[in-house]
Amino acid sequence: MANNNKKEKVLEVNNLKLYYRTSMGEVKAVDDISFFLRKGETLGVVGESGCGKTTMGTALLKMPTPPGYIAGGEIKIAGQDIVPLTEKEIRKNIRWEKISMVFQGAMNCLTPVYTIGKLMMETLQEHRQMSKSEAYDRMVKYLGYVGLPEHILNKYPHELSGGMKQRVVIATGLFLEPKVVVCDEPTTALDVVVQAQIINLLKELKEKLDLSFIFITHDLATEAEVSDRIQVMYAGKIAEIGTNQQIYGEQGASHPYTRRLLAATPKLHEKVAELAFIPGTPPDLLHPPSGCRFHLRCDVAMDKCKVEEPPLVEIEDDHYVACWRCPKK
Amino acid sequence: MSINKDKNIFEIKNLQKWFPVRRTMKEVLNKEQRYVKAVDGVTFNIRKGEIFGLVGESGCGKTTTGKLIMKLLDPTGGQMSFNDEDVTYLDHHKLVDYRTKVQMIFQDPYASMNPRFRIRDVLEEPLVIHKIGETREERYDMVRKALAEVRLQPPDEFMERFPHMLSGGQRQRAATARSLILNPSVIVADEPVSMIDLSTRAEILHMMKSVQRELNLTYLYITHDLSTARYFTDTIAVMYLGRIVEMGDPDDVIDNPKHPYTQALITAVCEPIAGKVNRIKEVPIKGEIPSAMSIPKGCRFHPRCPYAKDICWEADQPELEDIGNKHLVACHRYKEI
Q1: In what order do the strands lie in the sheet with A25-38?
Q2: Interval B292-336: pLDDT, tens
Q3: Least CA distance to B274: which residue of chain A?
């Protein structure tokens, strides 16, 4: 892990805010978060549904779903802030060129009347001027990376299995050699065996192509196998960022939310009488609670937690926690 | 209790469900018919008061089995008995009666409720259908009781709400209440927690388990998630391509799996443990589940099995064999591997 520190930051996000405008007010889905991604690492983003993890993913490509909008902050990809750029510039130079995304359930969104070859060609033609044979070679090369044979190009999506479609979507995401790939729940809809295959594939690609991934999922168990560092989100805020060892190691995670989320994750080889759970529901982001957003469900909350919001502080090397209860080490 | 525990509430013998496939012209002329063999000969018993878990990948026939038991589908072959009574085929009158005893919880709590009904209407509907309760007030009392059972407190407030006003967990509670309201003895739960957030998933399972203990219910729990199945069930049956390949006590099946398919499933499960990120996990089986339309000859797992030998595709398909402690395996070579 230590040598990772020397690697450059390929993505840096500072004070990012993404709000949804609604008739009832502004929903602060992502509220003032800062983090970074190093070259060649996988950053896992976990949280319950509605914590803003997918919203954050779309913000990174500067394509928030309306009525969402980026209310402030910086997104620096290889040093360049993309927030002030116009949509035209983003389309031309950033999206898919520098950062791409594998969407949640994308494997079910492939146009059914196009062959895989045509689908992939569409992306390529939009961005690159190249001859048909060049484009074909490139498609075959990337299909090879994800372990699919050439003849797939002539098939229609319904002729492929779920795992194969997911591989096609991943290949399309890699295609223009982006620096960062955001994967939003790429394995959730798949069976365990196929899921393990896709996870292995992502790890191999990371090595081979020196890619950096952001891996969004709600499952802490999957994250343990994929991510070098894990970022836990709660109600639009970052609760904790730590290395794989810091979150899953013997010493255990630091933030009470992470700890309880881990306790609620069933382990296959551990027989427990009762599974733990977190009572209550995540807060309404139209009217987020004062102080720490987790204090209503937290079992170690103090008076301070109700009033003052804890900042995200580095308590040890590479370990950031936003909690009044977690002292610096 | 202990006497009841050994009594089988369900006895399923060689149950089959084949769906006919639309024929091509050639097949019509040759009088051929192909089938999707979704469930192809499953045999198991469910004891009274136990939680029976059916696990497997998508397309293995676990949901179809659930629907057969729910009698939403009629089997193509085999036998099913419920409380020592044959229920393989039922006429409408008996079916209505059967449905008061066997109820279902569906996977998607968002889709299984009419969005224009209030929770009180959602829960009252089964009572109206089965003509239970003389007056509306009487029925509402039963609704209140059912909501209290699943701990949706206070019941009166929840009765007035629409489904969209509930969170996923609360909806699944309401769905459970709806299935409890007819006082069934069996509940078929098809992936009841797979759409629910991790933090509340355990809470729902916990609630289901305590309701089961209180009312001495029998559950058929259908899932793809081995980790929750281990925690929740008393017996696990692993299905592959329409057949059960391994069955037994959850501890035996998960800590000491005998069938190569179960072994592969267990290695593929992700666990929240540190230090696995830099390793590529060995997944012993390749490819994906084949189509249920063209099932491989012999043992149906042999094309993906790392241990397959001549016997696996030449001999007949293996039957379930008891290897002690009610742990059943259907594999020709389980002794060698």
Answers
A1: A25-38, A9-22, A68-77, A80-81
A2: 888 888 899 998 888 888 888 888 889 998 988 889 999 998 888
A3: A248
Asked whether the beta carbons of residue B281 and residue A200 sit closer than 8 angstroms, the reply is yes
Instruction: Say what the alpha-carbon torsion angle B276, B280, B283, B286 is, to the nearest 10 degrees.
Output: 150
Closest residue in A to B201 (Cα–Cα):
A277
- Judged on CB neighbours under 10 Å (0-12, 13-18, 19+), A32 is middle
Chain B neighbors of A249, CB-CB under 8 A = 274-275
Low-confidence ranges of chain A (pLDDT < 70): 1-6
Run of H or E residues at B100: helix B92-101
Render A209-237 in DSSP notation, one character per residue.
HT-EEEEEES-HHHHHHH-SEEEEEETTE
**Cβ proximity of A148 and A164 under 8 Å:** yes
Sort out which chain A residues have CB atoms less than 8 A from B197's CB and list them: 48-49, 218
Its CATH architecture, for the domain A6-98+178-321, is: 3-Layer(aba) Sandwich (3.40)
CB contact under 8 A, B271 and A267: yes
- List the domain boundaries for chain B: 2-329
The CA distance from B282 to the nearest CA of chain A, in Å, is: 9
Complex ipTM over 0.95: no
Nearest to A100 by CA among A172, A8, A167, A42: A172
Give the CATH class of B2-329.
alpha beta
Angstrom distance (rounded) from CA A306 to CA B168 = 27
CA–CA distance, A291 with A305 (Å, rounded to integer): 5
Domain boundaries, chain A: 6-98+178-321
User: If we measure between CA atoms, which residue out of B259, B262, B256, B263 comes closest to residue B330?
Assistant: B259
Take residue B139 and report the two structure tokens written for it: 């029925």
Interface of B with A (CB under 8 A): 57-58, 167-169, 197-203, 205-206, 224-228, 230-231, 251, 254-255, 264-277, 280-281, 283, 285, 288-289
**DSSP output for A282-294:** PPPTTSPPSSSTT
- CA-to-CA dists, residue B318 to A44, A132, B43, B169, angstroms: 43, 52, 13, 41
What is the length of chain A?
329
> Is this model's pTM higher than 0.90 or not?
no
